[in-house]
């Protein structure tokens, strides 16, 4: 029996890399690249919704990014506050449910309140789930989940850890995209990406448009997702992707 091609990925995760380099090549301050990156994210959210992707998870600010120059970090915080004010009404109109994933303890009261209010304002939307990983790290996620289970006296197993992870409200990513030409995970979704298909784009994030997204999706659809099985086993079942079942 012929294998059926995978459907459009249900969940796409993206490391939005290259904002600073985009700005530097144009003799602009790095913060200008991050501002342009917000425009690219808006375009990507609309494109994912139009292609019937159900979940989009993006790496906006890692726990390691605090080590960047003070002026860049300050600029990023200002961009985030401004983006929340502008984008939440648009996201609501487009049916996007917003979640912020990461450690909030070190954030300012204004920032923490902005994240909570944005999540509450979009909680009823159901067309696309947008997870913004902010002050996030994959190792932090695993360590926090294990600590929470231990504090509750629960056994630490694969299943219990999975339920305790920060993205337990959505299925694991089918497609993991990194822009900017680098080919590494950079501490992003280490647990959840165990069986994700990886796609690395040379485009800097501000240049990542609908055509680039379609290229990544097309590459995903050419993959054979075996999940530890053999091609023969999948052929006997008539499947390439469990989602097709």
Structure overview:
This protein has 245 residues and is of the alpha/beta class. The protein has a single domain, classed as Undecaprenyl pyrophosphate synthetase (3-Layer(aba) Sandwich), CATH 3.40.1180. Helix content is 43%, strand content 15%. The chain has helices at 19-25, 30-50, 70-93, 109-122, 138-151, 158-164, 210-221, 231-237, and strands spanning 11-15, 55-62, 96-101, 128-136, 175-178, 197-200. Strands 3-4-2-1-5-6 form a six-stranded parallel sheet, with helices on both faces. Helix 1 (19-25) packs across helix 2 (30-50), helix 3 packs parallel to helix 4 (109-122) and helix 5 packs across helix 6 (158-164). The longest helix has 24 residues, at 70-93.
Computed CA radius of gyration, to the nearest angstrom: 19 Å
User: How many β-strand runs?
Assistant: 6
Number of domains: 1
- Using the coordinates shown, work out and report the CATH topology: Undecaprenyl pyrophosphate synthetase
**What is the second-level CATH architecture?**
3-Layer(aba) Sandwich
Strand percentage: 5-15%
Strand sequence of the main sheet, in spatial order?
A: 3-4-2-1-5-6
The number of helical segments is 8
CATH superfamily: Decaprenyl diphosphate synthase-like
Low-confidence stretches: 1-5
Terminus-to-terminus distance:
14 Å
Class computed from helices, strands and strand pairing: alpha/beta
Q: What composes the largest sheet?
A: 6 strands, parallel
């Amino acid at each position: 029996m012929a294998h059926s091609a995978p459907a459009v990925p249900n969940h796409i995760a993206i490391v939005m890399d290259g904002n600073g380099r985009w700005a530097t090549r144009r003799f602009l301050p790095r913060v200008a690249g991050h501002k342009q990156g917000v425009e690219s994210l808006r375009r990507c959210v609309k494109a994912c919704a139009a292609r019937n992707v159900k979940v989009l998870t993006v790496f906006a600010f890692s726990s390691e990014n605090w080590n960047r120059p003070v002026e860049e970090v300050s600029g990023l915080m200002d961009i985030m506050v401004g983006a929340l004010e502008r984008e939440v009404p648009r996201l609501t109109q487009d049916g996007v449910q917003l979640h912020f994933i990461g450690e909030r303890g070190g954030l300012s009261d204004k920032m923490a309140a902005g994240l909570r209010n944005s999540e509450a304002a979009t909680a009823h939307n159901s067309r696309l789930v947008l997870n913004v990983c902010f002050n996030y790290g994959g190792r932090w996620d695993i360590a926090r989940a294990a600590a929470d289970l231990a504090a509750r006296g629960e056994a630490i197993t694969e299943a219990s850890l999975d339920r305790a992870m920060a993205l337990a409200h959505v299925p694991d990513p089918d497609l993991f995209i990194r822009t900017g030409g680098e080919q590494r995970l950079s501490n992003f979704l280490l647990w959840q990406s165990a069986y994700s298909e990886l796609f690395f784009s040379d485009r800097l994030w501000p240049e990542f448009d609908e055509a680039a997204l379609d290229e990544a999706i097309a590459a995903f659809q050419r993959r054979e997702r075996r999940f530890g099985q053999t091609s023969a086993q999948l052929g006997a079942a008539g499947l390439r992707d469990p989602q097709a079942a």
